[in-house]
């Protein structure tokens, strides 16, 4: 009789850890030869329901360049990780991290993006950072471009709207692969690459003066250039070091049909396809037919060179990394009550609770996502972002009681284990973000995710002192038990 071998626990060597981005924690925005980035010209939001990260125009850009302070631009200051990385990595090690996902600030390596030679001071900083990780047995997981690029490429050629940016990125990636060979094994080419359909943060291109149709034409063309850059980076990375594992990264927008009405089911399917097409290209190496129809029906005409499609096929990724924060509901009706979070726009689900920022909490949706990805691609999966932004309170005795975060993470980890029992190959989990940092979407500090509290407010006031939250000790126990002890 056939007896199925069902895994009952997380695999040995599972990569437990946390995830960050250079532009949200490093600070030191004008230190050691670093250039200005696209992330550092985004103003902080006026309220937490406002996503400010794409609100960049020619007018606001000029004002940001003229402003030499960090008062209105919190990503310039971050949490001073640049000078405190040893302290912070020691805290990660105390929790037992197996992996630390971080990104490299492109403008630390090529300040304007088009230099012939890299900035040695920038390269040296990451040498020290990776050495500190390895000191504690922590595997660096490195994102090559995470919501930022040298502003010089925007000013010179409108960012990824130009095919010339491919060469700048590939030169940058090659330098990283060569410099950090043996120091970094896990790479991701772009963070949440689907962000480019949302505008400036992903494309580094100004499109505020274009019509909606013209803007989408620009964004999908910029995406095509990013797909090509990613494919070239995968090829070069494997040539330089065959041990490299190079993945893609997408913001998963899990959606459900509002009802069993076929119109709602089809509407949800289309929304799903518009999210999955990014991974279809990077994992399978070709544009899916449903997107060819979508482009034709929306008058989007991609400019492709003769060998572009062959290059995409040659540069497929080794694993699929993704972020998962929430799910939404899709209806065929045009007038719906929206639920927004991490740019997932869809109808609110009456069966789910929501965070202070309106992000609906759906742990079971993570299991659904894991199964759908595994069934579709059969490549290793890596959850590289998942977490709860909340308004934490620092008590007089220096404690932070964040039981709500523990509850959120516990429920998601349980669903991860269920997916592993379903047969999904999951290699790691780096929650977002293990230490409080500047919000990507709103540039707030008060939207806190971390196990570690950082004493800084939205205006940059505070000592920057680090405090351990209750969740710090809880996650330490989770890692030590390889996900088996989830008790309070």
Automatic annotation (TrEMBL):
What's a single GO CC term here?
cytosol
MF terms (GO), sorted A to Z: beta-glucosidase activity
Tagged with keyword Hydrolase: yes
InterPro entries in alphabetical order: GH, GH_1_N_CS, Glyco_hydro_1, Glyco_hydro_1_AS
Q: Name one GO biological process term.
A: carbohydrate catabolic process
Keyword line: Glycosidase, Hydrolase
**Active site (record annotation):** 385 (nucleophile)
The UniProt family comment states: Belongs to the glycosyl hydrolase 1 family.
Q: What is this protein called?
A: 6-phospho-beta-glucosidase
């Amino acid at each position: 009789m056939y007896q199925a071998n069902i895994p009952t626990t997380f695999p040995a060597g599972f990569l437990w850890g946390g995830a960050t981005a250079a532009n949200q924690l490093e600070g030191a925005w004008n230190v050691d030869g670093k250039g200005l980035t696209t992330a550092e010209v985004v103003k902080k939001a006026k309220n937490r329901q406002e996503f400010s990260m794409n609100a960049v125009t020619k007018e606001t850009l000029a004002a940001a360049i003229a402003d030499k302070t960090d008062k209105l631009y919190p990503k310039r200051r971050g949490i001073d990780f640049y000078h405190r990385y040893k302290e912070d990595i020691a805290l990660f090690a105390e929790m037992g991290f197996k992996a630390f996902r971080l990104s490299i600030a492109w403008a630390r390596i090529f300040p304007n993006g088009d230099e012939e030679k890299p900035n040695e001071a920038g390269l040296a900083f990451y040498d020290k950072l990776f050495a500190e990780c390895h000191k504690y047995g922590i595997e660096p997981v490195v994102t090559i471009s995470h919501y930022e690029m040298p502003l010089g490429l925007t000013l010179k050629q409108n960012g990824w709207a130009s095919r010339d940016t491919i060469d700048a990125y590939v030169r940058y990636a090659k330098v990283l692969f060569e410099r950090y060979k043996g120091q970094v094994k896990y790479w991701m080419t772009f963070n949440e690459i689907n962000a480019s359909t949302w505008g400036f943060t992903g494309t580094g291109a100004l499109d505020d003066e274009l019509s909606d149709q013209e803007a989408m034409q620009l964004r999908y063309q910029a995406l095509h250039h990013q797909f090509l850059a990613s494919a070239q980076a995968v090829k070069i990375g494997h040539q330089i070091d065959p041990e490299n594992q190079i993945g893609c990264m997408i913001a998963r927008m899990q959606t459900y049909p509002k009802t069993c009405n076929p119109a709602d089911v089809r509407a949800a399917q289309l929304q799903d396809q518009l999210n999955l097409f990014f991974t279809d290209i990077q994992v399978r190496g070709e544009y899916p037919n449903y997107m060819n129809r979508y482009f034709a029906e929306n008058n989007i005409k991609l400019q492709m060179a003769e060998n572009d499609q062959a290059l995409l096929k040659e540069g497929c990724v080794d694993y699929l990394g993704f972020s998962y924060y929430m799910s939404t509901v899709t209806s065929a009706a045009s007038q719906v009550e929206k639920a927004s979070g991490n740019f997932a726009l869809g109808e609110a689900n009456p069966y789910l609770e929501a965070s202070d920022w309106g992000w609906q909490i759906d742990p079971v949706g993570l299991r659904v996502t894991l199964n759908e990805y595994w069934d579709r691609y059969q490549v290793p999966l890596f959850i590289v972002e998942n977490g709860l932004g909340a308004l934490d309170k620092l008590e007089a005795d220096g404690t932070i009681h964040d039981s709500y975060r523990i509850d959120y993470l516990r429920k998601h980890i349980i669903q991860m284990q269920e997916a592993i029992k379903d047969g999904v190959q999951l290699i790691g989990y780096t929650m977002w973000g293990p230490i409080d940092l500047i919000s990507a979407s709103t540039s707030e500090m008060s939207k806190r995710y971390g196990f570690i509290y950082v004493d800084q407010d939205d205006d940059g006031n505070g000592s920057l002192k680090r405090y351990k939250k209750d969740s710090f000790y809880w996650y330490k126990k989770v890692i030590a038990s390889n996900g088996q002890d989830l008790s309070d």
